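Protein in question quoted in full.
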Amino acid sequence: MEGELKTLSMDEGLVARQAAGAVLADVREIGEFAEGHIPGAINIPLSTLGPDVAVTLTNKSAPVFVYCRSGRRSQAAGEKLVSFGYSDVTNIGGILDYAGELEK
C-alpha cells in the first residue's frame, strides 16, 4: 500500500530489494555501520533522520528498505520516512537476522 510502512523478514526483504532495485538504508549509528553492514547499504542514522534526507533519498516514490540492529529503530525510521512523503518504504528488521557476509 502506498504511504504505509511495509514489513518483511530480513531474508524476504533482501530478495525483494534486489528485485525492486531498492535503496537499502542502515539506520544504525555511524560507528555500528562501520563495524559491518549489509553490502550495498547506505548509512542514514535514525538520530539524524529528518526532512533533509531528501538530499540523499531524492526520489520519494523509489523503494527504500530499512534495517537496524534488531528492528526497532528501522520501524521508527520507516515511519518517519513515510511521514516525510516516501511512498514505498519497507522495514526488513535487524541485522541480527542477517546471515550473509558483512561489508566494512
